[in-house]
């Protein structure tokens, strides 16, 4: 009888030990699954944020391109080619994001008065106002820490912009032919919660229709 009692006690301890291991494994698997879900959620939020930012930049660039097309310079290249160019818009700018920035008031130059007509607005003044609105739109990018853009004349196969340190490089290489196109290139970085990590850099490019 004593032997049977020892066997029963040993079996009980074995069952208790097995149950504890099973619980620990279950807790580990549950924790691993929760961490996986959290990581997936973080990636999802980051993807949504990136899409929102890209949408803001794309809409701003499209609005600027529309404005540029009604304010071109028509030039002749060679003996026959007549193309539209946008010299008043060619620029490189760096923006310090300020979400509280107010919508800029139109400024048409010192020659403008209340009695002036639309035809009195200079092409340069119109371009300046449109660029101000473009800057205002780019200021709306959430959590952006550095926004820069280049509007340049580039060849028929424009290169993407790059960031050299903290300065944008438009990589604009016009061929000085009628095939060149005006391109809007934007780059921006997003503030990172980890100050030691390098903030992600995003870019967007839009060709202005000829």
TrEMBL record:
InterPro entries per UniProt: Pilus_4_PilV (IPR013362)
Ranges annotated as spanning the membrane: 20-40
UniProt entry keywords in alphabetical sequence: Membrane, Transmembrane, Transmembrane helix
UniProt superkingdom: Bacteria
Official protein name in the record: Type IV pilus modification protein PilV
């Amino acid at each position: 009888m004593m032997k049977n009692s020892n066997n029963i006690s040993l079996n009980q301890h074995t069952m208790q030990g097995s149950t504890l291991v099973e619980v620990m494994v279950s807790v580990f698997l549950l924790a691993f699954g929760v961490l996986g879900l959290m990581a997936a959620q973080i990636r999802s939020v980051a993807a949504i944020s990136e899409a929102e930012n890209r949408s803001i930049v794309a809409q701003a660039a499209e609005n600027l391109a529309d404005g540029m097309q009604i304010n071109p310079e028509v030039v002749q290249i060679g003996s026959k080619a007549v193309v539209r160019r946008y010299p008043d818009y060619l620029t490189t700018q760096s923006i310090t994001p300020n979400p509280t920035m107010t919508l800029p008031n139109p400024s048409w130059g010192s020659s403008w008065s209340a009695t002036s007509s639309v035809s009195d607005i200079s092409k340069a003044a119109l371009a300046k106002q449109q660029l101000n609105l473009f800057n205002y739109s780019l200021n709306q990018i959430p959590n952006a820490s550095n926004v820069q853009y280049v509007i340049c004349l580039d060849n028929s196969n424009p290169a993407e912009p790059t960031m050299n340190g903290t300065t944008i490089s438009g990589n604009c290489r016009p061929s000085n032919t009628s095939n060149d196109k005006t391109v809007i290139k934007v780059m921006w970085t997003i503030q990172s919660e980890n100050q030691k990590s390098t903030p992600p850099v995003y870019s967007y490019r839009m060709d202005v229709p000829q």
